[in-house]
């Protein structure tokens, strides 16, 4: 996505944090996105509500996903979400919906969007040396969310400025998804760049110090090394000595001074020392991200030839990573013996099961893959990566009914990701459960913030012949609920919505 890569996430935050009233109008394509922006209220009510923050954050997430920037991988996603929720659950005001995800970007950076969406660049994850350092970055970003720094930065702005800010953000997103073309879009991007330069930082210095203080408390409460935050920022700071081109993006968006590092170390020193927790999952998922984020122009196996050419000297995670690199490079059969051995030696480590199933499936050993993943599913029946991989194998084996059953059980038991919902819809459609497939896609679009399209999918579900009375009642109730969420639908809830893309009269 060239436009995002050009000005980085700092500019997005500059747009949100500095409502400077840019006069750049959004392109026509952005109007449908702008129509879904929250009603910011009067100047006296300018601070964003939690619901407003979530809606804006969800809109940005939709742009990131549509552009392919989000690393959609069930193993990585499950690990990062688990780690993030362990931290956020210990934060004051942390009882909100948090979503943690990896962005395909070699830059060393992380960011918090409005509404609890926290992104970590693949480059940052690979730069960390241990789980405490990764947890420190996440805890810092969690603190930005729980302390509501974005909303506080907008507190004194008027309704007009806020709407203009949101419109500019919409213009940037639409332009980025379209490849950055259009004078209006480039104008919006230019405005965002200028604001980023003027502000220099995403948040004020006071907010950065506050996020450090709160984050260190969260970090220690979760059992991680409280010194990891200062240590990681100090390591990043050394890169600045290599020249301006070597400055990590993290330091551009979260500037670190010696005073800030000293304060973080002083605060950590006040916390009783304990044995920091570390997990094998961190090391395994770090290698998984390394392989999956390798540019298509490069061979991921090259890294492992250099660092783990002699297997006895390689770490367990590096052996796993090399097997993943073989799968990724089109040699899945070469990875199977290694993964079989790893599974035998460490049967409790589920990523070894799922990687073996993937390798067998990619090698055309469908029956073996089903056996591997069915066995893993029996060990952990509602583990997300295991169930997703098992569902994929069942679909490839021509057993969509069973795939639908397995994925639906997970769908009903564990809050699903968008990719899980999409896969469940594919399984349902392949199994002939067309109405259910439409209803799942409604949830998919609802999670992405596209309410009109969610309505359209439910209407299609209701139009499927011979649906049961239970299905009809469920789809109708959900349709009514979503219509009530659309501000323009509240005044015309009795109107047919087959043309839900049309503007309301006078809109």
Walkthrough of the structure:
This protein is mostly helical and 507 residues long. The chain has 25 helices and three strands. The protein has helices at 2-17, 31-34, 50-66, 74-88, 122-127, 131-146, 149-153, 159-177, 183-199, 205-221, 228-239, 249-253, 258-269, 280-292, 301-307, 316-328, 332-345, 350-362, 366-379, 384-396, 400-413, 418-430, 434-447, 451-463, 469-485, and strands at residues 99-103, 110-113, 117-121.
Number of DSSP strand runs: 3
Beta-strand residue percentage: under 5%
Morphology: globular
Radius of gyration, taken over Cα atoms and rounded to an integer in Å: 24 Å
**Helix and strand succession?**
HHHHEEEHHHHHHHHHHHHHHHHHHHHH
Q: Helical amount among residues, as a percent range?
A: 55-70%
Through-space gap between termini: 32 Å
Assembly context of the chains: single chain
Order of strands, widest sheet = 1-3-2
**Helical segment tally?**
25
Briefly note the structural class of the backbone.
mainly alpha
Topology summary:
Elements lengths: L1 H16 L13 H4 L15 H17 L7 H15 L10 E5 L6 E4 L3 E5 H6 L3 H16 L2 H5 L5 H19 L5 H17 L5 H17 L6 H12 L9 H5 L4 H12 L10 H13 L8 H7 L8 H13 L3 H14 L4 H13 L3 H14 L4 H13 L3 H14 L4 H13 L3 H14 L3 H13 L5 H17 L22
Parallel strand pairs: 1-3
Antiparallel strand pairs: 2-3
Helix pairs in contact: 1-8, 1-9, 3-8, 4-6, 6-10, 6-11, 8-9, 10-13, 11-13, 14-16, 15-16, 16-17, 16-18, 17-18, 18-19, 18-20, 19-20, 20-21, 20-22, 21-22, 22-23, 23-24, 24-25
């Amino acid at each position: 996505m060239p436009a995002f890569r050009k000005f980085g996430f700092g500019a997005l935050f500059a747009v949100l944090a500095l409502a400077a009233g840019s006069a750049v109008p959004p392109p026509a394509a952005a109007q449908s996105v702008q129509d879904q922006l929250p009603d910011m209220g009067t100047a006296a009510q300018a601070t964003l509500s939690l619901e407003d923050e979530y809606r804006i954050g969800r809109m940005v997430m939709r742009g990131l996903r549509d552009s392919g920037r989000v690393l959609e991988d069930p193993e990585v996603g499950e690990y990062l979400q688990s780690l993030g929720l362990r931290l956020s659950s210990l934060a004051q005001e942390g009882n909100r919906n948090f979503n943690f995800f990896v962005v395909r970007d070699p830059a060393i950076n992380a960011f918090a969007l409005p509404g609890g969406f926290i992104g970590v660049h693949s480059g940052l994850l690979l730069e960390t040396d241990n789980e405490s350092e990764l947890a420190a970055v996440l805890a810092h970003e969690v603190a930005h969310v729980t302390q509501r720094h974005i909303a506080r930065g907008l507190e004194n702005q008027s309704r007009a400025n806020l709407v203009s800010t949101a419109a500019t953000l919409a213009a940037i997103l639409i332009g980025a998804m379209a490849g950055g073309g259009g004078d209006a879009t480039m104008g919006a991007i230019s405005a965002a760049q200028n604001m980023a330069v003027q502000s220099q930082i995403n948040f004020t210095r006071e907010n950065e110090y506050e996020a450090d203080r709160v984050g260190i408390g969260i970090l220690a409460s979760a059992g991680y090394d409280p010194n990891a935050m200062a240590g990681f920022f100090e390591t990043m700071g050394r890169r600045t000595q290599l020249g301006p081109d070597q400055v990590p993006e993290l330091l551009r968006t979260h500037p670190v001074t010696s005073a800030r590092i000293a304060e973080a170390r002083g605060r950590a020193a006040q916390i009783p020392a304990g044995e920091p927790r570390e997990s094998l999952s961190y090391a395994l998922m770090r290698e998984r991200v390394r392989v999956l984020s390798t540019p298509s122009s490069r061979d991921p196996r090259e890294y492992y030839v250099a660092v783990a050419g002699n297997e006895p000297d390689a770490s367990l995670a590096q052996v796993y990573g090399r097997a993943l690199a073989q799968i990724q490079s089109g040699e899945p059969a070469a990875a199977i013996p290694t993964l079989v051995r790893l599974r035998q030696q460490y049967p409790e480590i589920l990523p070894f099961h799922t990687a073996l199933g993937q390798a067998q499936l990619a090698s055309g050993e469908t029956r073996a893959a089903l056996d591997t993943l069915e066995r893993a599913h029996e060990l952990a029946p509602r583990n997300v990566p295991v169930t997703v991989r098992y569902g994929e194998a069942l679909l490839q084996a021509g057993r969509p009914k069973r795939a639908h059953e397995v994925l639906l059980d997970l769908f009903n038991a564990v809050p699903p990701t968008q990719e899980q919902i999409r896969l469940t819809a594919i399984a349902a459609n392949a199994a002939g459960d067309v109405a259910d497939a439409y209803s799942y896609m409604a949830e998919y679009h609802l999670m992405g913030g596209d309410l009109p399209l969610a309505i359209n999918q439910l209407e299609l579900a209701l139009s499927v012949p011979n649906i049961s009375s239970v299905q009809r009642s469920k789809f109708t109730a959900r349709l009514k609920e979503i219509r009530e969420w659309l501000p323009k639908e509240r005044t015309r809830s009795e109107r047919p919505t087959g043309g839900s893309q049309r503007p309301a009269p006078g809109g």
